[in-house]
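hey
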């Protein structure tokens, strides 16, 4: 499949690893007042449908990963923040809230390469990914309360599932910023690396996943998400069904042969 045309981000594909890069450093990669949400939705839809993609890295160009909502637009009540109470509610539902729905149901693993501050909805975006690798210069903050608003993009749902209710409550209700090192200690970030090592490390991790049988990667990602909301008996039924699918793939037989022959497998996604 051809890559989708994006406006405020770029999308690259290399050896089954897609890299989505935000290109709005002029507004610190804000998610409102730009087309970054639409660009992400298009990229996720494309990746779900493309058999050539196994993993996606999401990162920012410039000083920030994402500053979240555009505060100037809030002050001027423009864009997402314009209109009546009903209109603003619809702006959220039809706009930024489409992002957690899309990322939560993405069929491929998502790696956030957090190159700088991830603030408000920018932090929530990182939390919506499966893994988060951060630059040592990164900062993280669930800062909505500082502006007299709440995490309208679902951040309160994601954050406590990553670091537990008590710590999530403390961060959300104080709005304080975390260094990358503290975020690692809390389990918010998986690793912290030097700035020039961020993308190489994210790509190394992505390639380790992309080297596995593609259908097994997607089935496993789906199971990991389903496990969060499914009762055990129902989940085991799903595991049996997905396992039956996996056993009937050519890549399963190739993986078994490669294991027994002590060599690397060559997978076709069939």
């Amino acid at each position: 499949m051809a890559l989708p045309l994006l406006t405020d981000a770029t999308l690259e594909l290399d050896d089954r690893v897609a890299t989505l890069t935000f290109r709005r450093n002029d507004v610190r990669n804000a998610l409102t007042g730009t087309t970054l949400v639409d660009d992400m939705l298009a990229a996720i839809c494309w990746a779900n449908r493309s058999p050539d993609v196994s993993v996606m890295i999401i990162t920012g160009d410039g000083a920030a990963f994402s500053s979240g909502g555009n505060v100037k637009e809030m002050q001027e009540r423009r864009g997402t923040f314009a209109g009546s109470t009903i209109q603003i509610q619809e702006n959220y539902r039809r706009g930024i809230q489409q992002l957690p729905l899309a990322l939560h149901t993405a069929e491929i693993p998502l790696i956030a390469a957090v190159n700088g501050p991830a603030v408000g909805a920018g932090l929530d975006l990182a939390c919506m990914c499966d893994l988060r690798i951060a630059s040592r210069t990164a900062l993280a903050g669930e800062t909505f309360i500082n502006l007299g608003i709440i995490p309208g993009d679902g951040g309160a749902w994601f954050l406590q599932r990553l670091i537990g209710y008590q710590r999530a409550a403390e961060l959300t209700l104080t709005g304080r910023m975390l260094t990358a090192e503290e975020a690692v200690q809390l389990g918010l970030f998986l690793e912290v690396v030097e700035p020039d090592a961020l993308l190489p490390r994210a790509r190394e991790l992505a390639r380790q996943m992309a080297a596995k049988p593609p259908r097994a990667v997607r089935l496993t990602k789906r199971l990991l998400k389903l496990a969060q909301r499914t009762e055990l008996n129902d989940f085991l039924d799903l595991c049996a069904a997905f396992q039956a699918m996996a056993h009937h793939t050519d890549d399963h037989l190739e993986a078994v042969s490669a294991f027994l022959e002590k060599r690397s497998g060559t997978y076709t996604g069939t």
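Residues 83 and 176 are 30 Å apart (CA to CA). The two ends are 17 Å apart (CA to CA).
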